[in-house]
Every structure is written in C-alpha cells, then in structure tokens.
Amino acid sequence: MDKKSKAKIVAEKLQKLYPEADCSLDFYSPLQLLIATRLSAQCTDERVNKVTPALFEKFKSAEDFANASPEEVVPYIHSCGFFRTKSNDIINMCKKIISEFGGEIPDNMEDLTSLPGVGRKTANLVLGMIYGKPGIVVDTHFIRITKRLGFHGTENAEKIEKIMLKLIPPENSQKFCHQVVIHGRNICKAIKPKCGECALSSECEYYKKHTPA
Ligand code: SF4
User: Fold this and answer.
1) Is 137 in contact with 128 (CB distance < 8 Å)?
2) Is 77 in the same domain as 145?
C-alpha cells in the first residue's frame, strides 16, 4: 500500500476513534494560546492548564507581560519547568508583538517563528487554531507514532512536517495531529504500546515487525 492510501485509512480510523479531538491546552485568546504552548515545552498540557488561569488573571495583555520582570512571572509558571527561559521568552515575545506587530499575533510562519521561544510546532498550532490555516504540529507523540506507522524513518521534526503535509489533506491536518496525540497518550505509548488494543495495527510497520506471525 502506498503512503498516501495508508494515510487516508489511518486518518479515517482516527476520525472514528476521536471525532472530538481538539487542542488540549485551555485558552481564550491568541496570546493565551501562544503563551500556553510555550509553557507546554517539556511539560504536560495538564500541568499548563493548572497554572494558566492564575497567570492570565494576573497578566491580562501583551503589555502586562511586556512590562513584567521575570521575577514577577516565575512564581506563576515555576511548576512547568525551565521557568527562567520560559519567563524570559514570554516577556520578550510580548515586547516584540507590541513593537513589531502592533500588538497582534502574526498570522504567518516567518513572523511567528521570529518571536522568542516560538518554533515551528508552536507556530503551526497557532496558525491552525487561530487562523484556520493548514499545518502539521509535530510533537513527541506525533514523531513516535508516524514513525511506527512507517510514514518516515526520521526524528527530524521539520522533515516529518513536510512529509506528512503531502499525505494529509490540508483541511484535516490540524485535526489529524490532535487525534494522533490522543492516540499516543491512550494507546501508542512510548514504552509498552498497547498494540493488542490498537485500531491501527494493520497499517503499522512497528506492529508487523514486533508481532510474531
Ligand atoms: S500497532 Fe502498536 S505501535 Fe502501531 S500504532 Fe498501534 S499501538 Fe502504536
């Protein structure tokens, strides 16, 4: 089976399994999504969702963050890890949003990735969730599962993004990514994937290789 046909089948199965899949970060504005996504690096979305209500209650706008010191932000995000880098990134990101983008969150990859602490993963998420643009959000679950399924043999996020963009219809790209992440959390875990319970086993190269005939 060619990869495009396999991607179609996998996407259909995931849609049946997780029709309501969506971004698991809580946010009420583009800025909040950007900041929550920055906080989610090396941290769980669950943890981020615990700290952001108090953070966003204290700092309500890009100006509030831009005028804050790292010492003021750190107590709110401490439990997310890498709090010094994250607080600096958030403050500097907001300064740039104000000084170069008139306080608006950019709507294109180049400008988004020019913001401190914003990589392609975050940019793709914002482009999809806020601006409805196609994009492949490559996180650790996405790398692992698409590799096990046999769509690629790399761990390079940018290469994976390009490969999967060609296989998944643009209008379904964001949803597909959310569905893959849920499948990674529930079934295709990093250690001891639950292959016996997995609806994707007939499309999976890892399963074929590791399961006796
Ligand atoms: S069959 Fe196993 S390795 Fe393949 S996608 Fe399912 S859980 Fe992951």
Assistant:
1) yes
2) no
Among 192, 195, 211, which is best to mutate for testing ligand 1, by the most ligand atoms less than 8 A from CB? 195
Which ligand 1 atom lies nearest to the CA of residue 204?
A: 4
The DSSP string of 83-131 is HHHHHHHHHHHHHHHHHHHTTPPP-SHHHHTTSTT--HHHHHHHHHHHH
Domain co-membership, 116 together with 150: no
Give me the CATH number covering residue 161: 1.10.1670.10
For the question of whether the overall pTM of this predicted structure is more than 0.85, the answer is yes
Question: How many whole angstroms separate alpha carbon 116 and alpha carbon 93?
Answer: 5
* Residue 203: count of CB within 10 angstroms of its CB: 19
Q: Answer whether 200 contacts ligand 1 (Cβ < 6 A).
A: yes
Average pLDDT value for residue range 35-54:
96
Question: Could you tell me the distance, in angstroms and rounded to a whole number, from the CA of residue 145 to the centre of ligand 1?
Answer: 7
Report residue 205 CA to chain centroid gap.
24
Nearest protein Cα to ligand 1, atom 2: 195
Q: Is 142 in the pocket of ligand 1 (CB under 6 A)?
A: no
Q: Catalytic: 139?
A: yes
Mean pLDDT on 52-76: 98
Which domain, by its residues, includes 142? Answer: 3-21+136-210
Span 152-172, mean pLDDT?
96
